[in-house]
Amino acid sequence: KKKKINVFTKELLKFKPTKKFDLVTFNKVLEHVYDPLKMLKNSKRLLKNKGVIYIELPDVEAKIKGKLDKN
Question: Would you say 57 and 28 are in contact if contact means Cβ atoms under 8 Å apart?
Answer without folding.
Answer: yes
